[in-house]
């Protein structure tokens, strides 16, 4: 099972077959701030960083060949690999 997984991920990039793809996403962060009179600037007193979430609409790039696409393109790629 793991061997199959590794075999398929070795060909993840649709263009060059590279093994790793970079996904761009955003994370929601919350900051509690005060206004510090001494420095005349905002000061962060607490911060909470949310979970990173990505889905098929997120942008994906291949660091090896500069392929650009979406996570959805990769899902299609995986479907092709796993059904061939
Ligand atoms: Zn590539």
Describe it for me?
The chain is of the alpha+beta class. The chain has one domain. Helix content is 24%, strand content 31%. It contains 2 helices and 5 strands, in the order H-E-E-E-E-E-H. Strands 1-4-5 form a 3-stranded antiparallel β-sheet. Strand 2 and strand 3 form a beta hairpin. The radius of gyration is 20 Å and the shape is elongated. The mean pLDDT is 88. Bound molecules: zinc ion (ZN). The site of zinc ion (ZN) has 8 residues, from loops.
Q: Which strand order spans the largest sheet, edge to edge or round the barrel?
A: 1-4-5
H/E element string? HEEEEEH
Overall mean pLDDT stands at: 88
The amount of beta strand, in percent, is: 25-35%
Given helix and strand content, the structural type is: alpha+beta
**Strand tally:** 5
Please give the count of helices. 2
Supply database-style keywords.
84 residues; alpha+beta; 3-stranded antiparallel sheet; two-stranded antiparallel sheet; binds zinc ion
Task: Provide a quick synopsis of the model.
With 84 residues, this protein is α+β, with helices and mostly antiparallel strands. Helix content is 24%, strand content 31%. The chain has one domain.
List the helices and strands and how they pair.
Elements: H1 2-9, E1 22-24, E2 29-36, E3 41-49, E4 59-61, E5 68-70, H2 71-82
Antiparallel strand pairs: 1-4, 2-3, 4-5
């Amino acid at each position: 099972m793991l061997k199959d997984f590794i075999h398929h991920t070795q060909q993840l990039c649709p263009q060059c077959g590279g093994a790793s793809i970079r996904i761009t996403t955003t994370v929601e962060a919350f900051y509690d701030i005060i206004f510090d009179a001494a420095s005349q600037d905002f000061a962060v007193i607490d911060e909470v960083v949310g979970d990173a979430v990505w889905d098929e609409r997120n942008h994906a790039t291949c660091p090896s060949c500069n392929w650009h696409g979406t996570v959805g393109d990769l899902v299609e790629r995986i479907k092709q690999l796993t059904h061939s």
